[in-house]
Write a structure and sequence with these properties.
Largest sheet: 6 strands, mixed
CATH architecture: 3-Layer(aba) Sandwich
Number of domains: 1
Number of helices: 6
Order of helices and strands: EHHEHEHHEHEE
Number of strands: 6
CATH class: Alpha Beta
Shape: globular
Helix content: 25-40%
Structural class: alpha/beta
Strand content: 15-25%
Radius of gyration: 16 Å
CATH superfamily: Phosphoglycerate mutase-like
Distance between the termini: 30 Å
């Protein structure tokens, strides 16, 4: 069973360390995030990819660029892979009250987060891109690799499993591999798996 696509959660940023909602903020990697990007090069040293994709946000492009350079490949920027826009919650701490508020919008997906977007609007822009990348890797002889945000990984899980998974399953700089078997699609953490069971990162 070969991987169809690898999904890389962008490296660490200062806002990740502050545990606030990042949302649509366009921020740089910090020193730890740059180290994580370098680690990806070593981790995938002997892998070949059909294509390398990235969200257009700086923290994702900076995560994927060292790998693209090492492989001598052009990094394809995909505009619709931005994180869930958490609007007025952006830069606010992930307190119990704020997390509960975001979860309310998740349960009412047609309601727009103030200053941001609704969960259904997020899904409408993201889902076709996710399926396109999966199918491209599935139909070829090499997997794709994609740099994304935590909220995109959560939506990938919802697509593959038909249910909302309340957390990103890998830390910043982590990787999940998508496979397809007779039982369907499956996403498996292969680098930087997350141990915490209560992490909610809708705007990572």
């Amino acid at each position: 069973m070969r991987p169809i696509a690898y999904w890389v959660r962008h490296g660490d940023t200062d806002l990740n360390d502050q545990n606030v909602f990042r949302g649509d903020e366009d921020i740089d990697l910090n020193a730890r995030g740059r180290d994580q990007a370098d680690k990806l090069v070593k981790f995938f040293k002997h892998h070949k990819f059909a294509r390398i994709y990235s969200s257009d946000r700086k923290r994702v492009r900076q995560t994927m660029l060292p790998l693209a350079k090492d492989k001598g490949m052009r990094m394809i920027i995909v505009n619709n892979l931005e994180s869930l826009n958490t609007g007025d919650f952006t830069n606010f701490p992930k307190s119990k009250e704020n997390v509960a508020a975001i979860q309310w919008y998740s349960r009412h997906p047609d309601v727009m987060i103030p200053g941001g977007e609704s969960f259904n609007a997020f899904r409408e822009r993201v889902d076709p891109v996710l399926w396109k990348i999966i199918k491209y890797g599935e139909e070829g002889d090499r997997p794709t690799i994609v740099g994304v945000h935590g909220s995109i990984l959560k939506e990938l899980h919802r697509l593959l499993y038909g249910t909302q998974i309340p957390k990103a399953r890998v830390e910043t700089g982590g990787v999940e591999a998508v496979f397809r078997s007779s039982h369907g699609y499956e996403a498996i953490p292969i680098l930087g798996a997350k141990d915490s069971e209560d992490d909610v990162r809708p705007g990572s």
